[in-house]
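**User:**
My hope is that you can spare some time for a protein that puzzles me. This is the protein in question:
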Amino acid sequence: MESSGQLHLQRENYRQLAKAFQDSADAYGEQTPPQVHYLMAIVALNLEDFETANAALFRIENTMEYAKRVEQLKDYILQLQARKG
């Protein structure tokens, strides 16, 4: 997944990247690393899929390593949503 994910990211192929991360999360199940959820949120933001971004962030908001980043991304999502109306 890592090399294909990097390729999709370099090509800004966010839909394929979102699928690759979702496949990874499905494979890991409850043991999905927080980084996967965080990156899923970033990709969802690039697709303007705020619901998926928020869902991914919700899964890691209580993770010490990601708590601050989650808070910042949630604020950013609110700003983007406000701009879109």
